[in-house]
Amino acid sequence: MAEQRRYLALRGGEWAFAVVGLPLALLGGVYALAVLYAGALLSLTVLGLPFVVAALLGARGLGTLHRRLVGRLLGARVEAPTGLPRPVGAIARGRAVLTDPVAWRTLLYLVLRLPLGVLGFAAAVLLPLGCGWLIGFPLWGRLLQPGQPPALWLDAVAIPLGLLLLCAVPGAMRALSGANRRLARLLLGPARAQQRVRELETARATLLAENTDQLRRLERDLHDGTQARLVALAITLSLAEDTLAPDAGPDLGRLRTLVERAVGQTDDTIVELRRLTRGINPVALDGGLDEALPGLTATSPVPVTVRLDLRERPDQVVERAVYFCAAELLTNIAKHSGARSAELAASAADGRVRLIVRDDGRGGAALGVGTGLTGLAERIAAVDGVLAVDSPPGGPTVITAELPSRL
């Protein structure tokens, strides 16, 4: 029943996009085809290049309109591409427009959007009307031709056919909406190289901020904690030295107390130093992920099944990223998921490392809604990896991190 409700459920924005999008698709398709046709005709004249420059600038504007429409009605977030460079001089600016990949990709989008717009309008409007006509065919026949005997075989075929086509409407709408989302992300967003540069810049800024915060915390902890313990240890040893002064004679009871205090302070300082250095380079990674990950899951309050297939050892930076990713995800499971069991699977082969963490909790996890997943995705992206989240309401949650073994 849940699958049936999910199949029949359609967002109102999908219907609105199919209806409102048809005139925009016709406008954009005609514009793109006219630009290509007229540009080819005028290419040998003086007006050719200025016409194409103006047409490409107009295509950018139409692309912005379509991108907003897809985001508002279909709920697909399409990042805005980078702006046009503005060099000095009209010729240089015209050359920048003519070599702008965003404008040319937008023209291609407008051409491909035309058949999708027609199909979407047909699925949203014409197909339901046709289904209504087929379902009511026995009534229409009797109203239009009251004196004619009814064709029972047509009645028997029309009603099931109309119901069958009506059941296919949600699936057709969902398929066309998905095609429109993918087409918009592919052609209206930034080019892959530009998007990759933007992701790396964001990841670099995030890592620099995290490293700065980590260094400040480490400096504060060393100053307020470890340094204070060492000062106390030095004072204790100084008192012990005074106890051994030759003029008064050693006080063995006081000396024993001071030595015991010094030993305790030394142990506390060692524990403090271990705690501070654990976040810098975990000791558990000395033996690789095949030893570190089982030790990490052993401390989880939620029972975790571990499945490892590590045929090669990744770079140290990649190992640290996978280790901290697993630690963060297991912490999220314990704090937020309400899960009763979880599974951690890691594999390393053919130059790729994959980490998969599943749980049977309540689901609903997503990038950008807390639980640290956004920051985790940025840390994974900093080592050229990708974090994917699949967590429908009610669960289960499956989070996959895929990284290269070598950087």
Automatic annotation (TrEMBL):
CDD domains: HATPase_UhpB-NarQ-NarX-like (cd16917). The keyword Chaperone does not apply. It comes from the Bacteria. The chain crosses the membrane at residues 12-34, 40-59, 114-140, 152-176. InterPro entries: HATPase_C_sf (IPR036890), HATPase_dom (IPR003594), Put_sensor_dom (IPR025828), Sensor_HK_TwoCompSys (IPR050482), Sig_transdc_His_kin_sub3_dim/P (IPR011712). SMART domains: HATPase_c (SM00387). Residues 317-407 form the Histidine kinase/HSP90-like ATPase domain. This is histidine kinase.
